[in-house]
Automatic annotation (TrEMBL):
<dbReference type="GO" id="GO:0000917">
    <property type="term" value="P:division septum assembly"/>
</dbReference>
<dbReference type="Pfam" id="PF04026">
    <property type="entry name" value="SpoVG"/>
</dbReference>
<dbReference type="GO" id="GO:0030435">
    <property type="term" value="P:sporulation resulting in formation of a cellular spore"/>
</dbReference>
<comment type="function">
    <text>Could be involved in septation.</text>
</comment>
<dbReference type="InterPro" id="IPR036751">
    <property type="entry name" value="SpoVG_sf"/>
</dbReference>
<dbReference type="InterPro" id="IPR007170">
    <property type="entry name" value="SpoVG"/>
</dbReference>
<keyword id="KW-0132">Cell division</keyword>
<keyword id="KW-0717">Septation</keyword>
<keyword id="KW-0131">Cell cycle</keyword>
<comment type="similarity">
    <text>Belongs to the SpoVG family.</text>
</comment>
<protein>
    <recommendedName>
        <fullName>Putative septation protein SpoVG</fullName>
    </recommendedName>
</protein>
Length: 98
């Protein structure tokens, strides 16, 4: 499995959720609505989920094993950090231009 594209959409409002991500696998399959969340121990991802009739949230799509989850999380968080660094750099450039 190769993650061939990662798209990060930063969340504008304040809170623990920092971004919503879509990943493309092998240029053939997309998973939307993966959340980047700020936890007590740092950033982590939450897979897309929905509320079940019992009130609990259940993942709609998720990795089968922890190694795959770790691989996906690392790729997503690396891309998130890259996007945030680019955004910060652009803000500095815009301020310098003013």
């Amino acid at each position: 499995m190769n993650i061939t594209d990662v798209r990060v959409r930063k969340v504008a409002k304040e809170g623990k959720m920092k971004a919503v991500v879509s990943v493309t696998i092998d240029d053939e399959f997309v998973v939307h609505d993966i959340k980047v969340i700020e936890g007590e121990k740092g950033l982590f991802i939450a897979m897309p989920s929905r509320k079940a009739s019992d009130g609990e949230y259940r993942d709609i799509a998720h990795p089968i094993n922890s190694a795959t989850r770790e691989q996906i999380q690392t790729i997503i968080l690396d891309k998130y950090q890259e996007v945030m660094a680019e955004e910060a750099e652009n803000e500095v450039l815009m301020e310098a231009a003013e």
